[in-house]
Design a protein that fits this description.
By secondary structure, the protein is an alpha/beta fold. The protein is built from 10 helices and 6 strands. It is globular, with a radius of gyration of 18 Å.
């Protein structure tokens, strides 16, 4: 099987070029009654589609898990007024490929989901994938009113990049302000998953979530979606939420790095500008 082209959504964001979409959203749109339109919150899913690790049941489980995650995000967005959740999906193997190329409203993606396919003989090269994400999070690519983004990496945790490829790609992501300030979540698939590279990617306050089997992968992605929504709320106690994520993941391989005293205080929410 070969990877299909980017998914486009007629009549929605996916049916227009990235530049056209950005120009529209950079203009503050007034809602009926004079209120200001919700601010864009970009959520990027980096999905490992390499044939070396994700073929067969794992790929089916990943598609099922993503389908299961989306309704939770739709429900959260419906209940709050401050942010519009826009989602993109980057499939990566030997090379990265934007499966959902343009920022799409989460309800629209949920209603028109199409399963991804693994890349035969594809390797797990994460460095180019990090660079691809960095390219869409530069200041000229984000709306002026955009909130801090969220990035979810789903993989077996074992990069196959050439020497220095993983490190250089991750450095490129962390060099940009939006990459550093993003909520970075990682789900490692398989009991033998290597979480050490994912520890270098994840945000310090959240653990790597480890999953094995269809139901566990779905559960971890739902947990990740809850983290994206909860950490996007003003005044959320991030330390306490990180502890809840850690307890919800009984096979964790890593611990959140919460600064002393942070767990007992209400931290700033992700409803804040990119620094």
């Amino acid at each position: 099987m070969t990877s299909p082209g980017p998914v486009r959504y007629a009549g929605g964001i996916g049916g227009r070029s990235c530049g056209e979409h950005e120009t529209d959203l950079m203009t503050e749109t007034l809602m009926p009654g004079g209120g200001v339109a919700r601010r864009p919150l970009h959520f990027i899913v980096m999905a490992d589609c390499s044939g070396s690790s994700m073929k067969g049941e794992k790929m089916q489980a990943l598609n099922y898990a993503l389908r299961s995650m989306l309704p939770h995000l739709v429900d959260w967005e419906r209940d709050q007024l401050q942010a519009q959740l826009l989602i993109r999906i980057l499939a990566f193997a030997s090379a990265p490929h934007w499966y959902v190329a343009d920022p799409v409203p989460v309800a629209q993606l949920s209603a028109h989901w199409q399963n991804m396919e693994y890349v035969p003989m594809g390797r797990t090269n994460m460095g180019p994938a990090f660079r691809a994400v960095a390219d869409v999070l530069t200041p000229d690519r984000l709306e002026r009113r955009a909130l801090r983004p969220a990035i979810l990496l789903v993989t077996d945790g074992l990069p196959t990049d050439p020497p220095g490829g993983f490190e250089n790609g991750l450095a490129a992501l962390m060099e940009i302000t939006a990459g550093r300030s993003a909520l970075r979540l990682a789900v490692a698939i398989g009991r033998d998953a290597n979480s050490e590279p994912l520890d270098r990617f994840r945000s310090p306050e959240v653990p790597v979530l480890v999953a094995d089997g269809t139901d566990e992968i779905a559960d971890r992605l739902v947990t990740a979606s809850i983290a994206v929504s909860r950490m996007s709320e003003i005044g959320v106690n991030r330390g306490a939420l990180a502890e809840q994520l850690n307890l919800a993941e009984p096979t964790r391989r890593s611990q959140p790095e919460v600064a002393p005293g942070q767990g007992g205080q209400g931290g700033q929410g992700y409803f804040e500008d990119i620094l």
